[in-house]
Hints:
Layout: E1 2-6, H1 16-20, E2 25-27, E3 33-35, E4 39-40, H2 44-51, E5 57-61
Antiparallel strand pairs: 1-4, 1-5, 2-3
The chain binds iron/sulfur cluster.
Residues 6, 11-17, 25, 33, 52, 54, 56-57 line the site of iron/sulfur cluster.
Amino acid sequence: xxxxxxxxxLCSGFASCVQDAPEIFELDTSGKATLRVTETDDERALxxxxxxxxxxxxxxxxxxxxxxx
Length: 69
Ligand code: SF4
């Protein structure tokens, strides 16, 4: 299980996270990413974090608290 955070100060609205995992991420009316869920077992969260050009997405292992993406 993963816990996801978005640094909205870094987010520039490229929306690759939304394309990678639309069940997890969406853009709000300001054009920045927001979370539809904060915890998930969907591994696409990892790919979304890796593909964010602003490095604005952090994914933590819920059990250990370790940063995993
Ligand atoms: S990919 Fe990164 S910069 Fe783009 S909308 Fe998602 S969080 Fe924001």
